[in-house]
Amino acid sequence: MSSVQKFAPRYTIEQYVQWQGDWELWEGVAIAMTPSPSGIHQGVVTRLSRILGNAIEAEQCDAEPFVELDWIISDDTVVRPDVLVVCGTPPDRHLEQTPTMVAEVLSDCP
């Protein structure tokens, strides 16, 4: 048995922004996203975003829902939740602050 440890490559946000395709970065580990979600999944995400947007508007909150927006948690962690709610000024590009709410719609794997 070898005593040599194997290490997975570790990445940062600087490398992440250069990648093509759909990826997330979890504590430096590259995570390939699954193929596009099903129509049912996207329908749920769309309805949830609309419901949240209507509720925010009805309460006249300074907030906005976003669908599949990159949230940069740290230098080595970037995720793309299905729906985020951000209070205050919306981000120009990616979200770099903690969102008010995060929702992930779970779907059956094929």
UniProtKB/TrEMBL annotation:
Residues 14-107 form the Putative restriction endonuclease domain. InterPro entries: Nuclease_put_TT1808, Restrct_endonuc-II-like, Uma2. Gene3D superfamilies: tt1808, chain A. CDD domains: DUF820-like. This is Putative restriction endonuclease domain-containing protein. It comes from Roseimaritima ulvae. The lineage of its organism: Bacteria, Pseudomonadati, Planctomycetota, Planctomycetia, Pirellulales.
